[in-house]
Design a protein that fits this description.
The protein has 207 residues and is of the alpha/beta class. The chain has eleven helices and eight strands. Strands 1-2-3-4-5-6-7-8 form an eight-stranded parallel β-barrel, surrounded by eight helices. Helix 1 runs parallel beside helix 3 (42-50), helix 4 runs parallel beside helix 5 (89-102) and helix 6 packs across helix 8. It is globular, with a radius of gyration of 16 Å. The termini are close together.
Length: 207
């Protein structure tokens, strides 16, 4: 199982600093949506230039103009780009077309999709490299939020998937047991007093 850090910071400088601390322990460096909106796709270029051996993930959350937006992100240096699962099939197919042209990959983010299992199978058939079972920060903050719902859906879908939404040192073993190909940790790393130590511990917990 790969480890992905979601860098939900707001400046390229902060992203480079965080990546510098955690890169030895993670496989995928994700530029979060707020970072891309605030700093622009030049942040993607900066991260890929600084860490060319890492998979760079641009969390674009594209909802329309899939081929255009994915192409822009790939040209900036992204290896993986997200499209929302709630987007039209043609949007996802367009993004996959751009990925094929660039020899890169599309990840479909199922945030906000009610029937995640069915949609996961559909978007995989459209060409998604893998599917992200994702609960956003707002959903995680609600009383009674349970990561297990995502894990169960991932197991049922039987497609390559990642999990984002409450992955911590206490839950990463469950994420791996569910069969996820990628565990996405955000606050558990960037919110830690020592992000490098937190990333190292998560890496060590992956069997």
């Amino acid at each position: 199982m790969k480890l992905q850090v979601a860098m939900d910071v707001l400046t390229t400088e902060d992203a480079l600093a965080l990546a510098g601390k955690v890169a030895p322990f993670v496989d995928i460096l994700e530029l979060g949506t707020p970072l891309i909106k605030n700093a622009g796709l030049s942040a993607v270029t900066a991260i890929k230039t600084a860490f060319p051996d890492k998979i760079v993930f641009a969390d674009m959350k594209t909802m329309d103009a899939g081929e255009l937006e994915a192409g822009i992100a790939f040209s900036a240096g992204a290896d993986l780009v997200t499209v929302l699962g709630s987007a039209d099939d043609s949007t996802i197919a367009g993004a996959v077309k751009a990925a094929t042209a660039h020899k890169k990959g599309i990840v479909v983010d199922l945030i906000g999709v009610p029937d995640k299992v069915t949609r996961a199978k559909e978007v995989r058939a459209l060409g998604a490299k893998f599917v992200e079972f994702h609960a956003g920060l707002d959903e995680q903050a609600k009383p009674g939020y349970d990561l297990g719902v995502l894990l169960t859906a991932g197991e049922e879908a039987r497609v390559p998937f990642s999990v984002a939404g409450g992955v911590t040192i206490d839950t990463i073993d469950k994420v791996q047991a569910a069969g996820a190909e990628v565990a996405v940790a955000g606050g558990a790393i960037y919110g830690a007093a020592d992000p490098a130590a937190a990333a190292k511990a998560l890496r060590a917990a992956i069997k």
